[in-house]
Structure formats: structure tokens, C-alpha cells
Design brief:
heterodimer, A: alpha+beta, Arc Repressor Mutant, subunit A, 3-stranded antiparallel sheet, 53% helix, B: alpha+beta, 3 domains, 6-stranded mixed β-barrel, 14 helices, 11 strands, elongated
Chain lengths: 122, 458
């Protein structure tokens, strides 16, 4: 089960657990500053990664529901004038704590990989 | 505009979501497909192409699989081990990972295991002794009903004097609280058989001792009342150990005539292995006490009684005191000095060890507590040093529960290793402690082996 489609990679896809962990981190990061709906989240991931990462409906929404069930994000239907009714997701207090921990972990993980492989990140 | 909702509902068939929940999901996914359709149209795709591409995103079995999982409560998923499979395979994976972590920090692991082993070893050894002395039942049926019978004489400054012949008969015949009372006197005799002679420990017992203890002969029969009288024919019961050692378990030993202190005695039975009381008695002969007061030889008997069902020791004491005082009124002046004293059988023979056993038990409990506190401190220090590792695990998708489970498994591995080593060390300590015990002070029927009671203490 992959949560993200990784394009243009010369090697095999990253380990399943790694992908899963990074997918959660990406979503939590995107709803940190403000609430977003599912399509916007998927679009932002694809745009900001310049097409390297992309979500499909079949993987994005189940993950959103899972994060919601864990209490890390909260979804709410919003109907604005002149716009379609959409479900917006915002970060919860618990999600904020998880996000902070995941960020620290990824920094340390990336640093550890860098020390071993010599790969420099931008 | 395509009917997205209908297409989505078709694909969600079989997922069996709750009505309201399914409706929400259909609305949300339809919204997404509509956004996607609009984007594709804006990019120049034809209506049919845009519709087909948007719907393609739904055509993955992953969607229904994932939504099915969401019907179940969210559970923490393992890291570093397969996420699917039984709890057993997950646990095995946890244990493997735990063993790897334990091996990666040998100094820390050895320190924890060592401290735990020392604490457990002390408890194992001391608890085994306490268990043997005070918890394990005596080897007799309903042993809690067995009471030691004796007399006390404060005027003579004697806590225990022994029981006199007259008291034996009067107590036995006039009490109303015992199913049976038996008396005995320890001694040693010269036993000779076909020319060889040896000194053996024995006991003179009233005919009903085996019955009071709740035992049956291993071979032959018990003494009869008529054999327990002065000048009755001499008969003897062999202890099980003596029967095995001297006669190699020969069943034809019955009827054989042995010489005890030069007198011929006929073997009428063999005691069962459980007949370990009176202590160290290899042979039993009838006491054959004389009820004639003129023949009384003072206070020399030990007694044991089996209380009737539902009778307490206090009630039995009052009953015997009543009988004893009635004897004074009948002219037994000696009974003005003595009075009956009843003690639980175990306390009579082991009561002296109770105080020291409790002190030792408390001591080793404190040692174990100190070991646990030290281990907790070590764990805290190690936990701080592992924060980076835990952060990486969390980043890779491990939930908090999953990390806790892994840490608990590591602690379990350390605890099992420390516990097993502790039990082994404890057994060695126990052997050493038993060898240092004064053998004469402890009854032979006490054994210090481990049993089911040991588990909660360890």
C-alpha cells in the first residue's frame, strides 16, 4: 500500500513505512497554517514538489480519514457564498504535537542519512 | 456534468459504511472529482477525456481496501516489522528487535539483568525457606485440624512439661472436641535381625496415632487397641525408609520376628512414606501405657489431636481445661501444677523460626526494591539518550502506542533474562543456606523445594 506516487526516481520506491510516515508529515504540514480541503492538499503537494510527489483520491482521502480518526486533524464542512460546499481540515492540538515530533525526527533522520551517504540537501 | 456520486456509490458497494458516513464520503469525493474534472477541462481536455481521467482515480482497489480498514478502530501499527499478520508474528518481531537492542548496549543490559537477578535470587532463596516452613501444608490430610497436645507448668517455670499417663487416658476419654488424640515418646532401640544389629530411632506410640494423622499403612495393618496395653504381645511397624533400606521393600516382611533391645517383636505393618511424624522414627512400637497411677512415670509424652470439624483451638483448650480441673477434684493433685496447652502442630515445631524468617523476608524484599529503583533510574537515563531514536521511529510512521509497545517488550526481555538468572542463582543460594542450617533443629518433614507459591513472590 503506497500513500504517495513518487515519480522520476531512479531507484525503487522508498520503503513503505517511510512513505507512510512522510505522507502524514506532508499533510500535517499543509494544514498547519490554515484549514484546507482535500483537493487543495493534493494539488499543493503536487505543485510544491514540482510533480515529484502526487496523491490520488484512493490514497489521499483514506489517509485524511485516518488522521482524523487519530485526532490529529479535524474536518468540517464549510459552505461559503458563491462557492461549493467543501470539507476543510485543520490541525488539532494533538496533531500539532505530532507534527513537531515528526519534523524533529525527519531532521535527525535526514541528517543521519546525510552523514552516511554524503548526500547534501538543498 | 457527470454524475460523480453515482459512480462513487457503485465503487463503494461492499465497503458497508454507515449510511451517514457513506453519504459524507460520497459528497467529499464527488467534490474532488468535480475539481479534478474542471482542472482537466481548463487544461484543454475534452469532456469525455476529462471525465475518464477523473474517474480513473477511483478505479483503484486501494480506495475500498482503505475505507474498509477505516471501519475498524484505528490501531497503532508496528514499525520495523510486518504491519500485517497476527499479533504473534508482531510480538515475535518485537522480541527480535528487543534482543537486538539489548545486545547493542551490553553494559547497560548486563547491569540491569545483574541487579534484577540479585534481587530475585535473594527473594527466591528466602521465600523458598519461608514457604517450606510456614506455607506448604504438612504432609497429612486436613493438617490444619492437627493440634499439638502438651502440658505447661508455670510454677515450675516450664512452658512444656510433656503429658502424663493419667492425663493421656482421662483427656482421651472425657474430651468432647477431638475426633482422636494420640500420644508418643521418642527413643532409640537396638534392632537386630539374623545376626546383624543396628541402633535405630524409634517411637512408642498409642495405637491410634496413624489414624489421628489421617494415614493408612503402606503394608499390613496398624496397631490394635489390645496391642497397646502392658504385657501385650510385642508388635512393631517398620518405617517406610527402614523397610526399603533393610528389607529392600520385601512384602514378606509381615510376620517376621525382629529383636528390639533383645526382645522379640513381630512385624505387623509398614508405615507409609508420609508418616514422617514423630520425627526421625524408623520404627513404631505400641506405647502400652499403664493407667495405674502408681505406675505413672511422670510427664514424658508428646501428644497430637485431630479437632472435630468446626471446633476451634480455643474451644478445644477450654474443653481440655474442664477435663483437667475435674481430675483435680477427683484427687489428681499433680494437675494443680500443670494445665493443658494446645498449639497448632506447625507452630509447635517451627514457631521459633517465624520471627527470623519474617525479618529475612523483609530484608530481601527491601533489596529487591532497591534493585528496582536502581533499574528505574538506569532506564530513565537510557530513555533520555534514546529520544533521537524514538523521534525517528515516530517520523517513520510509528504511533505513540507502537513505540511504547516496543519499549515494553525490551523491558520484558530484560526482566525475563534477569528473572531466570535470579531463579538459578536463588536455587544455588538455597542449597548453600540449607547446608548451613542446623539439621537437628528442623523436622525432617520440612522440604525447601520451589512450588507454585513461588511464582507470585518472584
Amino acid at each position: 500500500m503506497g500513500y504517495i506516487v513518487v515519480r522520476h526516481m531512479a531507484t525503487q520506491p522508498l520503503d513503505r513505512e517511510l512513505k507512510k510516515g512522510s505522507a502524514e508529515l506532508l499533510i500535517l504540514s499543509l494544514v498547519e497554517s490554515r484549514a484546507r480541503h482535500g483537493y487543495e492538499i493534493g494539488k499543493l503537494i503536487e505543485d510544491r514538489s514540482e510533480g515529484t510527489l502526487s496523491f490520488r483520491v484512493a490514497s489521499l482521502y483514506p489517509l485524511l480519514y485516518r488522521l482524523e480518526a487519530r485526532g490529529w486533524i479535524q474536518g468540517r464542512w464549510v459552505e461559503k457564498a458563491g462557492q461549493r460546499r467543501r470539507r476543510f481540515y485543520k490541525l488539532t492540538r494533538e496533531g500539532r504535537t505530532v507534527l513537531a515530533a515528526q519534523r524533529r525526527g525527519w531532521q535527525q533522520f535526514a541528517e543521519a542519512i546525510r552523514r552516511i551517504t554524503g548526500i547534501e540537501y538543498a | 456534468m457527470p454524475d460523480w456520486k453515482q459512480a462513487i456509490r457503485e465503487r463503494l458497494q461492499g465497503v458497508n459504511l454507515a449510511g451517514a458516513r457513506e453519504s459524507e464520503i460520497v459528497d467529499e469525493l464527488a467534490q474532488h472529482l468535480e475539481d479534478r474534472y474542471d482542472a482537466l477541462r481548463s487544461a484543454g481536455a475534452s469532456e469525455s477525456d476529462a471525465r475518464r481521467q477523473a474517474l480513473e482515480e477511483l478505479n483503484e482497489s486501494q480506495l475500498t481496501e482503505e475505507l474498509r480498514k477505516l471501519r475498524r478502530p484505528v490501531s497503532p501499527e508496528p514499525i520495523g516489522v510486518p504491519t500485517r499478520g497476527s499479533y504473534v508474528s508482531g510480538f515475535v518481531g518485537d522480541v527480535k528487535l528487543a534482543l537486538r537492542n539489548v545486545r547493542s548496549k551490553p553494559a547497560f543490559s548486563l547491569m540491569v539483568i545483574g541487579m534484577l537477578a540479585l534481587g530475585v535470587a535473594g527473594n527466591t532463596a528466602i521465600f523458598s525457606i519461608f514457604n517450606g516452613l510456614f506455607l506448604r501444608p504438612l504432609p497429612f490430610p486436613e493438617s490444619e485440624r492437627l493440634i499439638d497436645l502438651d502440658e505447661t507448668a508455670p510454677k515450675w517455670n516450664l512452658h512444656y512439661t510433656g503429658v502424663s499417663n493419667p492425663d493421656l487416658f482421662i483427656w482421651r476419654e472425657h474430651n468432647s472436641t477431638f475426633d482422636g488424640m494420640a500420644f508418643f515418646a521418642n527413643g532409640s532401640l537396638n534392632l537386630s535381625d539374623t545376626g546383624t544389629a543396628q541402633r535405630v530411632d524409634g517411637a512408642q506410640v498409642t495405637y491410634n496415632l496413624l489414624n489421628v494423622l489421617g494415614l493408612k499403612p503402606a503394608l499390613g495393618r496398624a496397631f490394635r487397641p489390645e496391642e497397646d496395653r502392658p504385657k501385650a504381645p510385642h508388635v512393631v511397624m517398620l518405617g517406610y525408609g527402614l523397610w526399603q533400606r533393610m528389607f529392600r521393600g520385601d512384602r514378606n516382611v509381615l510376620g517376621r520376628v525382629l529383636k528390639l533391645d533383645g526382645e522379640p517383636y513381630t512385624v505387623i505393618g509398614v508405615l507409609p512414606p508420609e508418616a514422617v511424624f514423630p520425627d526421625r522414627a524408623d520404627i513404631w512400637v505400641p506405647l502400652a501405657a499403664d493407667r495405674d497411677p502408681a505406675q505413672s512415670t511422670g510427664w514424658y509424652l508428646n501428644g497430637v489431636g485431630r479437632l472435630k470439624h468446626g471446633v476451634s483451638r480455643q474451644e478445644a483448650s477450654a474443653d481440655l481445661l474442664r477435663v483437667h480441673k475435674a481430675m483435680i477434684q477427683s484427687g489428681w493433685k499433680d494437675n494443680e501444677i500443670t494445665s493443658p496447652i494446645l498449639t497448632p502442630l506447625r507452630d509447635r515445631y517451627l514457631g521459633d523460626f517465624r520471627g527470623i524468617s519474617h525479618i529475612l523476608l523483609g530484608g530481601v524484599a527491601v533489596v529487591l526494591l532497591i534493585a528496582c529503583v536502581n533499574i528505574a533510574a538506569l532506564m530513565l537515563v537510557r530513555g533520555g539518550a534514546r529520544s533521537r531514536e524514538i523521534a525517528i521511529r515516530t517520523a517513520m510512521g510509528a504511533s505513540r502506542g507502537r513505540v511504547v509497545r516496543q519499549l515494553l517488550t525490551e523491558n520484558l526481555v530484560l526482566a525475563v533474562a534477569g528473572g531466570l538468572l535470579g531463579v538459578l542463582l536463588g536455587k544455588l543460594c538455597l542449597v548453600g543456606m540449607i547446608s548451613l542450617m542446623p539439621a537437628d533443629n528442623l523436622p525432617h518433614w520440612i522440604s525447601f523445594t520451589m512450588d507454585a507459591r513461588f511464582a507470585p513472590s518472584a
